[in-house]
Amino acid sequence: MNFYLSDGSQVVGPLSSDEALQFIKNQAIQTDKWQICDKSHVWKPLTAELTNLATGHGTQETRKRLFSESIGGNGDQSEIKQGLATLPEVLDLPGSVQHISQIRLILDSMWERQREKIISSIKNREPHESLSMNRKDLEAIKEKTHQHTLEFWKKSGVILEWIKELTWGEPHELGDYYFKFSDPDPGKRMSEAEQKLCRCEVDDIAGCYCFLAGDKYLYIGMTEKQDLCSRLLSGHKDKIFWKEADSMRILIPKNSKQTKRLERLLILRYDPVYNDSPGQKSSAADDCLELIENELTELFE
Question: Which CATH number does the domain housing residue 261 bear?
């Protein structure tokens, strides 16, 4: 069952019971000033309905945890988690819920259209003109869903989970290295990068590399061969990001065959400035995006 939340000035939803509880917790909302409704379209005081909400769909463990956290009244707008390379990753869980609700609205509208077309066939009538849709409309819906999905992954941390799954090492000691440049000269920075890679013993293996300026990713690249250091130095000599970057991040995949997948996820997550290519579309994210696109196409037919 889906739910909607409102404080009188805004409506949030549709949300599952777990997502509604997650939103209440992360927004630290005053439940006595909010209302909730389900498919009955009857608005009820949120405080009085929290117990019923906590017994809705979802795993029992998740419902109990979110319910206890939501009635505690604590939570921040944005949750800061430690990144894989000692870099802070700022997540926006309330914002991610908003994107999920938008995706639900899109899917609900497509399913409603399909349902009404079937009803029209049963009645031996032509579908109402409001149900008409052309290929251009479909592509616009696919693009909108695609963008909401990407934003959900970024704000919720799902892409970070996929990156972690592909990165070599145990959770407490991942093959993820980060260092700052100490010299502004590009030539000396290249020498410094070589020294750092050799010191970490990752100079002659496959991996991904990221050039950063502060927390902004300038360029993300990779090599599947056992030549990370030579690829980094010879393949990108005289590139502008050697001058603009102030730090570098290196990620080593569990298997060299997964290097392109890891690069693709990094590009999706960080939107590097100077990458001309989005990377090879072979990651878990791309599998999910393909599934969504196929389902939307079927609903269109």
Answer: 3.40.1440.10
